[in-house]
Description:
alpha+beta; globular
Amino acid sequence: MAKKPLLIFPKPILGTKSSKPPGRGNLHFPSSQQQIERLDETISNLDRVLENQNAFLGLNPANLVTEMILVLEIAGLLDDFFRAVSETPGMEFLAEYREDITPDQNFYTTNKEGQRIEKPFGARLFLTMTNQRALRELLSYWTEYKKPKENQNFKKGTTKFRTLFEQLIDIRPYSVEDRLKDTGMDLYIEELRQNGRESLNFEVELAYKKSGLQNDVSYNEISRLLRDNGGQVINSSRVIVHEIQYHAFIANAPFASFQDLSNNTAVSFLKCQQVLYFRPVGQTILKADDVVDSEEVIKLPEAKILGEPVIALLDGIPLQNHSLLNGKIVIDDPENFNQNYLAESRIHGTSMASLIVNGDLSCQNPQQLNRPIYIRPIMRSNANGFGGGEFLPDDRLPIDLIHRAVVRMFDGENGNPPVAKKVKIINLSIGDSYRPFNSNMSTWAKLIDWLSYKYNVLFVISAGNQTDNLILDCSEADFNLSTIEDIQKLALANIISTDFNRKILSPSESINAITVGASHSDLSIIANTTHRKNLILSSFLMSPISRIGFGYNQSIKPEILMPGGIKLFRKPVMQQDPKKTLLTLEGNYPNISPGQVVAIPGSHGNISNVGYSCGTSNSTALTTRLAGQLFEMLELLNAELPIGTKINTKYFTVIIKSLLAHGANWGEAQN
């Protein structure tokens, strides 16, 4: 056990929240008359747009859902707008999103001298569910706005609409393009099409309603439209999580439905006014490599594994009887994912469990945790006919799997008691490869933030891997003569210049979680370096395969780096550009260093196999391991403290998070 840290907890004091001064800042807005000229026809015609959409969707009094999602795009800030919406009969606030807007002749930023600056500025999108009554109310607000300001008489609670009209860039119905924006559906569709599928499963997220009856009406409407187009709802896939206002299910539809993803499509379910998003569901995490048995057999000292788990791992199923895991893990598989889970495919869960329990097995004297870890499988083996590997299922919503897993730990399920109520740290080394974080929180991240708060647990999440090749800004001849220091500079320059393509994967933008990236570090000795290129010299620097933020509202993500293994590149013999050097990422070779040594499945009957592994999943597992050790240290401290001075255990979670983040340092990477 490491030396106990000095923990000083000052007495809490009350603070006051500072507020921003009012004003428009340096944003330029059109005059009221210009706004009226720009928007009058659009706002006045909204009720006719609603009628046309209802006619297209075939709505009638028997199944009437005369609503549409309205997009209100504004420049700058507008606080507490949802309160004004709540004062508008027939209108319901759905969501608020951020985006960057390109300036035009009406909206732009200025410098201190009042000169126009050609740079994007921040804007917000408000989504409201609106019916004909709400449109009449909106039109009455607009009529009031068109009066001279001294004659305006907005109803109490609705004056925010005047501010909205002053800053309004656009107002329009929610479109098919909106439902697919930043979801990765186009890539998902093409990937499955190339695999010879005739139809695809996908997530349908509906606009959440406060009324259960209204949610049922919305669900029935989209179900009807799916059937009308040869699709269907996947049985038992519907999920409502009230705490994060989430209502979704998984649907299946033929590929022909997705030939046109514009608002001109004739496929009615794509235009359903109750739908917020269509998203991919299920993804590949790791494809199984050919099984190679290691020559080395690692034996660890006998360890006493006692007590209840304080660490949970949501991942694939590990090889439970592996000699390096036997007796150290507790698997809880209520979904029966274990069925047909091939032993050779149990790579990710086995290696993650190994790193959490034992650390990097290259270490001379690996220190094992003294508690078992709780494992809840959320992946399947060889799902959907792909060749080998582990997959998030495409007939279950990931949010449903994670939500139910955590509720089962702390509250129990189906009348049964909690199964892991002492867990304080949850490892999630899984991300949505179709959704790099842009600027708006994913539903995954919202769920994790809520679960973190409700159950006082710390989620440790991987930032995600970036496996693209690198193109260095030098000729092949210059590269061959470069020192490792020069190559490191070139590699870092490439990483910085391509940071837009290195965005962290959702749900790692979670605010309450700690997000972990990989440093270019392990304890191995690199073998056979003739054709293998190590691009990063410093072990303090980020791995070239690690993703990097920002997170929500430009927060720093990932918060910390932990060793994720050294990943090498190769230089192809044929170079396409004489002025550049292309380097390709080396494949996964579990029997060849470098990397961290972990337990992995072996050939039939081999339950002691180990291999080399790299990535942000590894660095996340090592962070979880350290968090578990910090928990034990806090327990030990409390046992030694006199009664009345002990640390309240409800603060253990935030103390562990603080120690992980504030115990980090830049080291030589500062330079």
